[in-house]
Amino acid sequence: MRRLARGVPLDELDARVSVCRACPRLVRWREDVAETKRASYAGEPYWGRPIPGWGSPTPAVLVVGLAPAANGANRTGRVFTGDRSGDWLFASLHRVGLATQPTSVHAADGQALVDTRMVATVRCAPPQNKPTTAERDTCAPWIEAELALLVEHVRVVVALGSIGWDATLRSFRALGWGVPVPKPRFGHGAEATLTGPEHDITLLGCYHPSQQNTFTGKLTEPMLDAVLGRAAALR
Predict the structure, then answer these.
(1) Neighbour tally for 174: CB within 10 Å
(2) Which pTM was predicted?
């Protein structure tokens, strides 16, 4: 997959992502969820496939998340769309001028990102939102291939959570970019510089807008706005 994914057009890459069946456990889980469905969505169709990146094809800002939610993007077919984490994320993106609407509930709701694209580190919904290390590594060529296509435009990467932070550092290192040594530590508001042949990229750390973080107050709206606002200013 690593060899085949690199260098294809973005639309083709998205299409290849959407039919990947490389991880048996994730394939079973995403399809089981799509068949049984949550009761509140029983009348809705489920995507039940891997989730491609979404947003601008020439983004200045790239948002890197963990994985699709089982009844969120795995249902709607669009990353961060249709779950509570996405509710927080899109509302903040709208407040700082990186999204045209404050909500995103389904793939045809008219939402659009401004100079921004979203990608997931792991493209299939994992059980308990916890992909294995092997699944993460198997999926890595997809984000590397997408970054290779986008990197000439990107000026800022916002990593949601430590997994997104580590995946960003690994991916840029695989693409031959300069990554600080020792590895920069993840934290909310943390910053690092990724050095490229023609321009540098600022990596920003942000707590993931999961319910665990938002319900407990670990992540607040002003905290999320501060990081995304910084990204908007740097783009």
Answers:
(1) 16
(2) 0.95
Q: Give the distance from CA 216 to its chain's centroid.
A: 23
Report the SS3 class of residue 157.
strand
Indicate the average pLDDT of the chain: 96
Q: Which structural domains are found in the chain, ordered by start? A: 2-234 (3.40.470.10)
Would you tell me the crossing angle of helices 84-95 and 221-234 to the nearest 10 degrees? 50
What is the C-alpha end-to-end distance of the chain, expressed in Å? 31
Residues in the chain: 235
Is the model's pLDDT at 56 over the cut of 80?
yes
pLDDT tens, 164-204? Answer: 999 999 999 999 999 999 999 999 999 999 999 999 999 99
Radius of gyration of the chain (CA): 17
Percent of the chain with pLDDT over 70: 97
Question: What is d(CA 70, CA 30) in angstroms, rounded to the nearest whole number?
Answer: 7
Q: For 99-122, give one letter per residue: b (16+ CB within 10 A) or e.
A: beeeebbeeeeebebbbbbbbbbb
Two tokens at 179?
């990554």
Locate all alpha helices (DSSP H) within the chain, ordered by sequence: 2-5, 10-17, 24-36, 73-76, 84-95, 133-150, 161-174, 211-216, 221-234
pLDDT in tens, 85-107: 999 999 999 999 999 999 999 99
75/45 Cα distance (integer angstroms): 7
Do strands 200-206 and 191-195 pair parallel, antiparallel, or not at all (unpaired)?
A: antiparallel
